[in-house]
Design goal:
- By secondary structure, the protein is mainly α.
- It has one domain (14-106).
- Helix content is 67%, strand content 0%.
- Helix 1 packs antiparallel against helix 2 (36-57) and helix 2 runs antiparallel to helix 3 (66-76).
Length: 109
C-alpha cells in the first residue's frame, strides 16, 4: 500500500485464530516425525486456511486476489501426493504470486 493510504483492516474471530494456532503448533510437533516434504504441505495448507478465515470474516475481500489464489493453492497442494516435481515447482512459484500482489497494491493498480 502507498504510505499515504491506510491498509484495509481485516479481522479473524478468536475461534479462527485459535484454530490456526492449534494447526500451526500441532504441525510443528508432528513435523519432527514426518518426511520433510510434509512440512511444506502443512505450511502451504496453513496459507490456504488463513485465506479461508480471512474471506469468511471479511466478505469484502471476495473481490481481492485471495479467492483465486486460495483455489489455486487448494488444487495444487495435493500434487505432493502424486506429482512431487510439479508440487516442488508450485512451491517455488508461490512466493512470486504474493510478491506480485504486494507490488500491484503498492503501485495503486
Amino acid at each position: 500500500m502507498p504510505d499515504d493510504q491506510p491498509a484495509a483492516e481485516v479481522r479473524l474471530t478468536e475461534k479462527q485464530a485459535l484454530d490456526m494456532l492449534a494447526f500451526l503448533a500441532s504441525s510443528a510437533e508432528i513435523s519432527l516425525h514426518e518426511p520433510t516434504y510434509y512440512g511444506t504441505f502443512r505450511l502451504i495448507d496453513a496459507a490456504s486456511r488463513l485465506m479461508g478465515y480471512l474471506l469468511e470474516s471479511n466478505p469484502e475481500l471476495a473481490d481481492s486476489f485471495m479467492p483465486a489464489w486460495k483455489a489455486d493453492i487448494d488444487t495444487r497442494k495435493v500434487w505432493m501426493m502424486w506429482d512431487r516435481p510439479a508440487y516442488y515447482q508450485f512451491l517455488k512459484e508461490t512466493p512470486a504470486v504474493v510478491a506480485e500482489e504486494i507490488r500491484r497494491r503498492e503501485e495503486g493498480a
